[in-house]
Amino acid sequence: MSHTNKDRRLDEIITRAVDIGKVEFDRTKWLDRLAAESQTPGVSRPRTGCTKSEPHKTIWRTIMESKITKYSAAATILVAASLVLFDPFGLSGGRHGVVLAEAAERMNEVLTITHKEKRVYYEQGNDEPLLRAEAVKYISSRQGIVEEQYDQEGNLMHRVYIQKEPQQLVFLFVKGKQYLMMPMADSWARLMENLTPKGIVEHFKAGNCKELGPAKIDGHDVVGFETLDAGSFPIPQQYHFLFPIEGIKWQFWIEEKSLLPVAIDLEVTTGRGLFTSFKKMRITCHAYDMQYDQEIPASVFDPNIPDDYVPLNLESIVQENAAWLGVGALPVIGFVAYRRRSRRRGRVRLES
Amino acid sequence: MRGDAESFSRLCEKYYPALVAIAYAQLGDRDLAEDAAQEALLAAYRDITRLNRADHFSPWLVAICRNIAIDMAKARAKAGQIGIEDCSPASKAGHHEDDRVGIVREILLGLEPGMRDVVFLRYYNQMSYGQIAAMLGVSEEAVNGKLRRARARIRQELQRRAAMEIEP
Question: Which residues 232-251 of A are in CB contact (within 8 Å) with B?
Fold first, then answer.
């Protein structure tokens, strides 16, 4: 059978497989249903994706399903975590506790967030940065998270998709025209449990968090909070050789008027690891231009892998200066590489 | 109000078959898929004023329909009723169905939902790449890529199963 005939045969089979019979819109039935519904107040309504008043219950879980977003998004989580930490309802006249409580409540209603980030990568002890980058993040409760990182010339370096349906990660590395697609298995979910809000809250109950007081950022009157903690990124011990986090300092700034975070700053220090190119790194990140509940086109969340991209393999990860891949990519790639390395013992060349 | 609804209902006629296909790709049950499509159109009618950009109408409508279908599937699974798999096209493939068609239905279930949507819109609704792209709010290249990958997956799986049958 020729190639064309095979294709035609396949098309026929697929056409038969998806044939569910003819469907026709019953206008009368629909109008009746509409009329009946309008006479029934309080009927439960499905999500339309642009209802601002609908409480959003899963955004924490969405954000924390991957370590990728941990660096920037967990600062948002801290707003909720701090609610428990400060026990604001138990504080008499605790102004900042109330701010946090109300901010946490506001964040629970948010359906989408977009923001920008300025990232600078340093080798510790060297004030000259290895890399400066800009990132844009789109976060949707329904569709997942997309991150784009650009170099200083505005060239796209990578795009990361954390999809909810299906539950998977997709990386597109523009420079090498490579992609990485992997499902987020249940084992991942177990691994991430200590990154859930509950896990964070448990952790920060034992930690410390201080208020920075009122300030002005980008013309906004804000209240600042800071926490110093290495354990807030609890990479399991067996993965430390890949990306050993030594310390994280968070600062988040909540606008007094809207009670929503307007900026987040963080600084991460690492030990020497495979995916820091065996350098001790210091990475700073400033998240700003927070936009809440803006309509984000569905196409943004669609990983359209170009035809000329090839799958990323371990060798190319090692050969790539991993530090240049960006904060977002490192932990996940580390985890992937660890798993692959386990299967390909002896094949890995470590290059600094 | 009624006049608006009637105008909107004429718009519904255009989108309804595609919405049923989108919902069916999630639910695997035609009756439920029709319910989901109708529900999506009701929800869209209620919230149409909140749509900021008119050119996003069809992707927005598709997203509503897909979300409703997903919620319906989850609700049924949670209630211990027939699960998604059980009411899938595959399970409806009776003994009289062509084996390969049944296998393709099974394979379709394993495809990622976005890919499944494109397959249904292309092969059931007979839409062009451009129409699918406009419907889903993606590029034609994305549609092409998804269809190509879906076809490759189906072909590979059919070949794999055929090889298994030959093995002693």
Answer: none
